Request: fold
Amino acid sequence: MQARHAVQSLYWLIRKDLQREMRALHAWSSMLLLGLVLAFLVGSQLVLPPEQKAHVIGGLLWLAIFFAGSLACEHSLASERDAGCWQAFALYPVAPSLLFLSKVITTNIALALLELVLVPAFVVLSDVPLAPRPVPLLVVALLGNLGVAAIGTIVSGLTAGLKQRSGLAVLLLLPLVIPVILSAAEATRLLLSGPLDSQWWTWIRLLSVFAAVFTVVGALAFEYVLEE
Amino acid sequence: MLRSFPSVTSEAAPSSVPSGPRESRLDGRPAVTAANLSVAYGRVPVLREIDLQVAAGECVALMGPNGAGKSTLLGCLVGVVRPACGEVSLFGKNARNRDARRQVGFAGQEPGLYAELSARENLIFSGRMYGVQNVNQHVSRLLEESNLTSAADRPVAQLSQGMRQRVAVLRAMVHQPQLVVLDEPSARLDTAGKQWLASLLTRCRDHGQTVCFASHDVAQCRTLADRIVQLDAGRIVAIDPGRVHDGDAWLRSA
Reply:
């Protein structure tokens, strides 16, 4: 019974966040716009031979995902504070880890949407085929998104009550997210440069560990993040 | 007037306690126990060694000047503010316990409503989070009884302050909590709204629900509360008897 209520609550929490975003376009529209601007800048300024382009495009893609996605990350819990709903949110009789998970999933949806726009934009603007192997790229994206979303949700919770949170959230987020971005960028570079070898699997394992650690730590610590 | 509430999936349904004089309603069980409660924001003490017990079915008002610690005390009681020292228990359980929280309905100074969602959607969402059965019908009935049907499907951002406040109070009560905690619930209400609030809190009392609210309105506290707790500079400085206990005569003056 409790498990059923938990799953239902998770669904209603995510649905509520998506409903709010669809109606008000708080952060996702800015995120997509910034992503496109970054893709255009990269595409227009990256004058390199095709092999060298393929070598650096993965890192640039993940930097663009991080900077544009940080808007969605920062907004995920700050939106509860801005709406004056923080206390009600903290008091719902579900596990804090479930509240955390709902925000992580919502941010994951935002990042997936961003990638759906950014990957074709990078392909068109930089002329590098980013998806020669769509399944491994999907694996990298899922793990990278999970890591960024988990760290982003924790940082969003920690900075939600602060006046200067926008700049601070990115400043806090950047050093924490570097291992995830680095692993995702390296895994993307390797899958673009040849067959998937043991080195690729090493980066995937590292990415999995980062994503798992940040998700578990976030879920366990979220009770304290929710406190006034 | 509010009719009966639907069942919720929480473990304990509120016990039926007769309305009328305070002594006949209260069975002596403590609903809220705060012991040696102290809170500081940074180095600034906000609450100092507060001891407070609220009996099940009792209505307690907190009064005091701005900065006296009323909102912080209410936050501690419901578990959203962690005290530096001391403990709060709700119905014998730690205030941070999930089962204890299920029995609490809280409306803070901020309405706690999502501006992009309608009043109905806000209430339905809250009801679902608390596992209210037949939540759509229940919310429709609540809105109808509060004369909010015409505004129910408008986004909260388009509602007046008074309407938002009514919806915020309803949100706190949508799951029929055993303990209702309201921080200045009448702050944005007009005269009709205050009468609506008085009848709503009276209904809570009739259902045996415990009510704690903070207010600056002396008349409201004297009318509704069994006890008035006066706070100043984070300390309880006085506990006054509230309304005159002559049956329901006080209701007529509400």
